[in-house]
Amino acid sequence: MEMANVLHMNGGLEDTSYAMNSLLQRKGISRTLPITKETVVKLMRSSSFPKGRLVMADLGCASGPNTLLLVSEVIKAVHKLSRELGQECPELQVFLNDLPGNDFNNVFTSIQGFKENMKKEMGEPNSEPPLMISIVGVPGSFYDRLFLTDSLHFIHSSYSLHWRSRVPQGLEENKGNIYLTSSSPPGVLEAYCKQFQTDFSSFLKFRSQELVTGGRMVLTIPARRGEQHSEKECCYLLMSMALNQMILAMQGLIDQQKLDSFNLPLYMPSAMEVETEVRKQGSFAIEHLELWDMDWNVYEGEANLAGDGGYNLSKCMEAVFDPVIAHHFHLSREITDEVFKRYALLLSDWMAKVSPAFVSLTVSLTKRH
């Protein structure tokens, strides 16, 4: 399955949309903001940075309230440092990238209001020269070239690089599973690892061509703490259980052959795997790398949003995985809703017994000379 034509988050502003169910990703962006801001400040203080313009790209931007959150924080950091240095704020060129199926219309309708609010927030609605912010959408896969050579100063990507460019080949024996589990044959693990290595190496190679020397990246990736994959299997094992329940409950709508051939185009790497590929590719120096956790119950502690953790997490997962599942099984929205209702019950039962956490990896990279 080629992901460029299939993979996208649920668009719009409906109950199952990504815009309404992306708090987990928002918390991830907020958690890593200090690293992002520090990286941008170091970039601007470096001798290789041209003082008049900052060109950045957010890869895997999706749509909804998170899309411009990172951009706003970068702009504020640039503006603050410019004032501290007694310099004019550089012109800001922002490229928002995602696959063609992304709801770019939702993004574009919010841009003008966003720019006006940013200028007011920084106290410069009528300043001379005015604060110049240009925001452009760039559809396409970040496993291909996207931008001109030596055209970018800063690249950011959050919760996107675990997606593979395609479902790995050689997963025929992974029957009954939709991702890696402890019961998956060794060849399945090898196929997923190989696809990650191929994709991430391509990502690094193309970004090295697009970034100026000394340019920087901050990447946040769903990951795992150790070399074993068992810590990540529960979330997707429960999803496969929900699909199996639908086979029994609604015969003919989801058949076993379809389920046996369904594998998610994902891979959650370890820190060692990421480091190995960065060093092997050779274009970047690692400035900072850390693993950190976030509770599965993403609404915990959120005023007026608390509730059943399994239901909340299921809504987040539906916003992300509904298009892929609907495409593979040719299901209506009503049927996929039923799948995720069953998934929510399984998650709630699991979360009542344990306190699982999402593991994420954040790495800051600088392009070598």
UniProtKB/TrEMBL annotation:
Keywords: Magnesium, Metal-binding, Methyltransferase, Transferase
Gene3D superfamilies: Methyltransferase, alpha-helical capping domain, Vaccinia Virus protein VP39
Gene Ontology biological process terms from the UniProt entry: methylation
Top-rank lineage group of the source organism: Eukaryota
Any Pfam family hit: Methyltransf_7
Gene Ontology MF: a single term: metal ion binding
Keyword ATP-binding in record: no
Keyword ATP-binding recorded: no
Protein name, UniProt field: Uncharacterized protein
Organism: Linum tenue
